[in-house]
Amino acid sequence: GAVVSQHPSRVICKSGTSVKIECRSLDFQATTMFWYRQFPKQSLMLMATSNEGSKATYEQGVEKDKFLINHASLTLSTLTVTSAHPEDSSFYICSASPGHFYEQYFGPGTRLTVT
Amino acid sequence: DAKTTQPNSMESNEEEPVHLPCNHSTISGTDYIHWYRQLPSQGPEYVIHGLTSNVNNRMASLAIAEDRKSSTLILHRATLRDAAVYYCILRGGGRNAGNMLTFGGGTRLMVKP
């Protein structure tokens, strides 16, 4: 099956700093990628839809200036958590699909801890 | 998006079949039924999907009720590696439907040796 990678897998940062998370589709091109956040013992919550070559679409309640998304190519989307705070500590997961009628392929997730 | 209802948790014995139910009484005619599972500390992985007919693949079977208001994911022989949270998700199949997935609470499957 198709593979989606994320980097880094774990990151610890200090409050007030910014963190960039990369999501790559390794063997297919994806015009759309998705970013999810998952808190402990909870389900995945969609944060935003990343569109190649255009602005991301954010879900209600997600601050676009805090969670910057760049989808510069058909195989790479990045999520930057700016001015991170302890409440941003979470498991961030991306997904991508080769096309609308294909299943979604998920990355392994990035665990962010803000101290 | 139409919602799904799943039991919070289920338990199974190793090497026995497992039937994971999902109710989706407000499903529309173009909604596909998708199942994903998430192992601990990993991203979700695709299991199976269907529209009207029952489906089989190497991982599982999907049985869809005739009125499509419910479905059942069947793991034929549960192993310890099948312990995960299983999500039943409806995904629009219309031309203008978005490609995103909306996750509910899922069913946490525990497999006993």
Secondary-structure blueprint:
The complex is a heterodimer of chains A (115) and B (113).
Chain A: E1 4-7, E2 10-13, E3 19-25, E4 32-38, E5 45-51, E6 57-58, E7 67-73, E8 76-81, E9 90-96, E10 105-106, E11 110-114
Chain B: E1 9-13, E2 18-23, E3 31-38, E4 45-50, E5 55-56, E6 61-64, E7 70-75, E8 84-92, E9 107-112
Parallel strand pairs in B: 1-9
Antiparallel strand pairs in B: 2-7, 3-4, 3-8, 5-6, 6-7, 8-9
Description:
- The complex is a heterodimer of chains A (115) and B (113).
- With 115 residues, chain A is mainly beta.
- Chain A has no helices and 11 strands.
- In chain A, strands 2, 4, 5, 6, 9, 10 and 11 form a 7-stranded mixed beta sheet that branches.
- In chain A, strand 5 and strand 6 (57-58) form a beta hairpin.
- Chain A starts with a strand and ends with a strand.
- The model of chain A has no long low-confidence stretch (mean pLDDT 93).
- Chain B has a 5-stranded mixed beta sheet with strand order 1-9-8-3-4, with no helix packed on it.
- Chain A binds chain B through residues 1, 4, 6, 32, 34, 36, 43-46, 49, 91, 93-95, 97, 100-101, 103-109, 111, and chain B through 34, 36, 38, 41-46, 49, 87, 93, 97-106.
